[in-house]
Write a structure and sequence with these properties.
Elements: H1 2-14, E1 16-23, H2 35-48, E2 55-60, H3 70-80, E3 84-89, H4 92-95, H5 99-111, E4 115-118, E5 123-124, H6 128-161, E6 173-176, E7 179-182, H7 184-198, H8 203-212, H9 226-234, H10 236-242
Parallel strand pairs: 1-2, 1-3, 3-4
Antiparallel strand pairs: 4-5, 6-7
Helix pairs in contact: 5-6, 8-9
């Protein structure tokens, strides 16, 4: 058994050790998770653990909601080609925030005998305990992500219900401080176009009616189009106000 483990370790050494770093748009504004900070941490970790870091692959400004990222796909192709023996990341969230994707990645790494190392969480899948802890930590990370999404959804729903501003001012309203105040003419127009929509009038004809009657979209355009009418009629703010 120990001979097999030794052969696996030796095989990993002959393949590349690759670092993977990623930031999303939100992450770029947070101290300590920039691409440069992640790269510095990976280099320091590898130097301290006697690993030769051969390459760092980067995905900038991309979410980890799935694995469809150019850098990650290039890394996975190298894994499938048996070019990589070790992957080092700053944290699990840099690679993925999805339990399903994490499971698929770990399965691929296991089949290709690739060690997956997370620096901040001190996880290493070259050991049985490391593999178990990676899966457990991934579950906790997804739970946190889903809880944040729930809190955000609750906050936005509350703001909509209390006419609080939470983004672009929707048609039918104007901003007064932190409040959204209905505009009578636009509210009457909303009522009319909802009636037109219920009577199966096309979005194009509704757009023409809005333009002809002097109403303009809130995005700065001067005329209405079918797509903007559809978006208006399907918006949560306007469907809730109509209820």
């Amino acid at each position: 058994m120990w001979r097999r483990a030794a052969r696996q370790k030796q095989a990993q050494k002959t393949r590349k050790c690759v670092g993977y770093v990623r930031v999303s748009t939100e992450d770029q504004a947070r101290e300590g998770v920039s691409l440069a900070a992640q790269e510095a941490r990976l280099r320091a970790f590898c130097a301290g653990t006697d690993r030769q870091l051969d390459e760092i692959i980067t995905d900038a400004g991309l979410s980890a909601k799935n694995t469809k990222r150019p850098g990650l796909q290039r890394l996975l192709q190298a894994v499938r080609s048996s070019e990589v023996g070790c992957i080092v990341v700053y944290s699990l969230s840099r690679a993925t925030r999805s339990i399903r994707d994490l499971s698929d990645l770990l399965d691929l790494f296991r089949k290709q005998d690739v060690a997956f190392v997370s620096v901040t969480e001190n996880l290493d899948t070259s050991t049985a305990m490391g593999r178990a802890m990676v899966s457990f930590t991934g579950v906790l990370a997804q739970l946190e992500r889903e809880q944040i999404a729930e809190r955000t959804s609750f906050a936005l729903t509350h703001k909509r219900q209390t006419n609080r501003v939470y983004g672009r001012v929707p048609f039918g309203y104007e901003r007064q401080g932190k409040e959204l105040v209905p505009i009578p003419d636009e509210q009457r127009a909303l009522k009319h176009i909802r009636k037109m929509d219920a009577e199966a009038v096309s979005y194009r004809r509704i757009a023409a009616w809005l333009t002809e009657n002097g109403f303009t979209p809130k995005n700065g355009a001067t005329v209405w189009h079918a797509a903007s009418v559809r978006k208006l009629l399907l918006s949560k703010m306007n469907t809730e106000s109509a209820a």
